[in-house]
Amino acid sequence: MNALLEALGDLYDAIKESLAIWKAGNEAEALERMRAAAGALRSARSETAEADAQAVKDSDDAIAEVEKDPPQG
Amino acid sequence: MTRVSDRAILGAALAGLVFFAVAMACAGCGSIMERYYQATAQGYTSATACYRAASRVNVAKELAIKNLATSSKYAEARAARDSWRPTYARVRKACDGLAVAAEAAAAAADSVKAATSRDADAVGWIARLATLGVEVAKALAEIGVKL
After folding, report:
1. For B12, what's the count of Cα atoms within 13 Å in the CB-facing half-sphere?
2. What is the ipTM of this complex?
3. Which of A12, A14, A34, A52 could staple B37 via S-S, CB 3.0–4.6 A?
């Protein structure tokens, strides 16, 4: 539930960001916002890839640990 | 996995269409190139939100899988892992699709600006981004993140 709330919080931020994009007053400003948005995407991609890789490793390790020493009975 | 209602998917699709309608119909919102840059920035922002929202859900799901494994529910942990990972891969693919399209639109900006068919080219790119925005909204709805 917390993860969902946080995800919805991210979407809310994105909507706020979107409103700012659509309020851009001229071509140069819109181009600048496009470049800033590109930078934000690059950060999000690398940060989430790192978090995902760690989470996958943790759960794979936990499962491998049980496979190595399966519970008896 | 969270069950998603048709209404949620419809809502997500409508959000994407509203994005498209604003891009197309907002004649008072500046030049076609301004709208092109805005739509591309919107594509980047939506892809960013897609990565972040999906990753948060993924980290929580993987933690739940880990907890199942460490609490002797090995079979459930494996089943949850086998069910969740393909779902997450589909969502990441939708995020990737929009991100790649936004990058392509940004890279094409100069040639669109210089083209004699500038308006048609720009509208084509905006439509492509809007379509992928709808796909992202649907993919997020599939994992319970509704717009």
Report:
1. 26
2. 0.79
3. A34
